[in-house]
Amino acid sequence: MFSGLHDIDWSSMEHAYGSADEVPALLLALRSSDAEERRKALGRFYGAVHHQGDVYPCTTASLPFLFELADDVTTPDRADIVELLVSIGSEAHGRCDGPYDGSESHVEAVAAMRSRAETLIRFAGDPDVRVRRAVIPGLGLFIDDVDRASAVLRDRLSAEPSIVEQLLVVEAMATLALRLPERAEAQAMTAFAKLAADRAASPQIRLAAVVQRARCAPDHISDDTIATAIGLLREMDEAAVPAEAWCDPHRPTGSTGFGDGAPPQIVAAFEDLERRSRIHSPTTDLLRSFHWTLAAKVPQRTTLLAEQLRSHDPGARLDAIRISADLMKSWRGDHTRLITLVAEHLDASHEEVAAEAAAALNACHAIAEPAREALAAHVAAQYAAYGPDVWLTPQVHLRRSHQEAVQALARLGDERALPSILTALDGGNDAWRAAQVAGALPQAADQLVPRLCDHLRSLDLTQSLWEMSARSDLSALTALADDSAIGAITETLATAVAHELWSVACSALEALRALGPSAAPALRTIRSLITASDAQVRPAAVAALWAITGDPDEVMRPLLNLLDDSAPYRIGEAATVLAEIGPPAPEALPRLRDLLTHDYEWVRVPCAAALWEIGGDAEASAVLDTLLQAWEQNSATANEVVACLDRMGPAARPALPQLRSELHQPQRRGMYNSIDNDEKLQETSRTLVERLTAN
């Protein structure tokens, strides 16, 4: 076995973490008699050689040997190997078929998979159900003979006793039709119509036929499609499939690379990623696919989700809550009904469902006002049932439910979140979560600021573990802008500079900037940082210096130097400060005009805004042209552009067509496409349109 394995120059290739010279050992370990050795090798292969779906030259070079392993019935865990093969091929195909051309490795990987079509077909009839389950998705991707592929899939659909494999077969039929529409679409659509109408088939399979038909013909989705899907969901709810009939061990994803020394925020992020990848029912992926296909059909999707949220199955409700959050975060519309439906699950008897509902409302806090009272009642009920330390409870789902609900409530500016936030800051456990939202409660600054300062001082900044927590505390203090925090912020800045913790130093400078003249005791340190070695600290120091002294003469030379910098970030930051200075900064006008032709929109936009604030009406035409072109080129600039248009008053009237067009966009836009930035973008755009058309 593995003839020629050591003839390959593996050391000349790389994977995600460096040299690929370990690949032969990993391949050999995959057929070890030691289960733990195989588990570690497979995890490492996913984590390094097939890192996050990447396909490197060493990944492609591994394919013949992986096929050799999978083809040997004595190989332990053959299904895992087949799943790995299909994953590599699928990712490579997706890259080749996507908006960006695949690399040579991707092309070669797809070719290698297609050259083994007969082997894949043989795997589809393997006695091991897990091998069949792993290979079925590949049947639609790697068999170019449409008639042969269709016949194999029809045979598998009738032969497979389990609903999981049947669902995969129906999906593979759609994959084949989408990949080779001229040859496969017509027969696939006929098969889907017949299957959807087959009362002898299970409701899950009939639903799959409806969904896959919609995937292949999204322009033909109608209200009848949604009504049919809802009817099938109700049938499914009356005849749920037992978990033992579809659950399968989750494949290794590789080590995250984080151990006990990882910042808690990073650990939490990976936990959230893991939660999002969980499969709660045999139709989890099917319904996700259906919603992806429905895309901007928000009313229809809401109707469908309302039905999903009524399911008796907790797993189905978990899926529905997550899809609801994804819908609200990605698409515009009136989501009041969906927010209310999700909020009803805060009191679910199934703790994970309640936690997921709280997390969804927290993620969608910008539009969660209709859930305010439900969130407050949920937090109060937990207090009554579990006491004031419920924030710290060791019960995982209860803890998550409470913390997410408190965060959502705080982000709504509701002081009823305060007791738990104070408990967190006093106790230290998950204090970073409380700090994330403390800045949204300025009415409680007298209680929050002392605790945030104490927590900030308690962090050992000689350990990188606490850098993110320090930045959370500083961000909250920035939002609260309370003079009593000056001492703690200044001490933190000094410590950060001493240990070259530049990200913390930037956060501290931002906090001092928010305090303005009150932060004068920190001026000596701030002035020393105008020439700091770190690229981001220098503009942050200049911005803080201007906010504190209000003296244009002291900051003008550093700002002009930053405008001449090669780094777009530093130019943009300098322009932002110049915009704050306004008319007293005429020296900057020539350079700002020149920068309107910069090749990066994130330079042009802040420079145009500064040009307007300094030069006023005389610069209006050039400013407006620059802003609108940048907005058209990159919608992520929309928030900055519209904010400047808002300040321009009547001079912004030529922007009306673009403002109206923005309000007709169905997807979330603006900075990071985030829900809060998009809501602000829509609100400002509406206000501008009303104002500019009033006369």
Description:
- There is one protein chain.
- This protein has 695 residues and is mainly alpha-helical.
- Helix content is 67%, strand content 1%.
- The chain is built from 36 helices and two strands.
- Strands 1-2 form a two-stranded antiparallel sheet.
- A hairpin with a 2-residue loop joins strand 1 and strand 2.
- Residues 249-258 have low confidence and may be disordered.
List keywords for this structure.
67% helix; 695 residues; mainly alpha; two-stranded antiparallel ribbon; 36 helices
- State mean pLDDT (0 to 100 scale): 94
How many beta-strand segments?
2
Q: What Rg do the Cα atoms give? A: 29 Å
Specify the structural class: mainly alpha
Please summarize the sheet with the most strands: 2 strands, antiparallel
Distance between the terminal alpha carbons, to the nearest Å?
Answer: 82 Å
Residue share in helix: 55-70%
Q: Which shape, going by the Cα principal axes?
A: globular
Strand order of the largest sheet: 1-2
Instruction: Note the total helix count.
Output: 36
Point out poorly predicted stretches: 249-258
Q: Approximately what portion of the residues adopt beta-strand conformation? A: under 5%
Topology:
Elements: E1 14-15, E2 18-19, H1 23-29, H2 35-49, H3 57-71, H4 78-97, H5 104-115, H6 117-124, H7 129-142, H8 146-159, H9 163-179, H10 181-196, H11 203-216, H12 223-238, H13 264-276, H14 284-294, H15 298-308, H16 314-330, H17 336-343, H18 351-363, H19 372-386, H20 396-411, H21 418-427, H22 431-438, H23 445-458, H24 467-480, H25 486-498, H26 502-515, H27 523-528, H28 537-549, H29 552-563, H30 568-581, H31 589-595, H32 601-615, H33 620-633, H34 638-648, H35 656-663, H36 675-692
Antiparallel strand pairs: 1-2
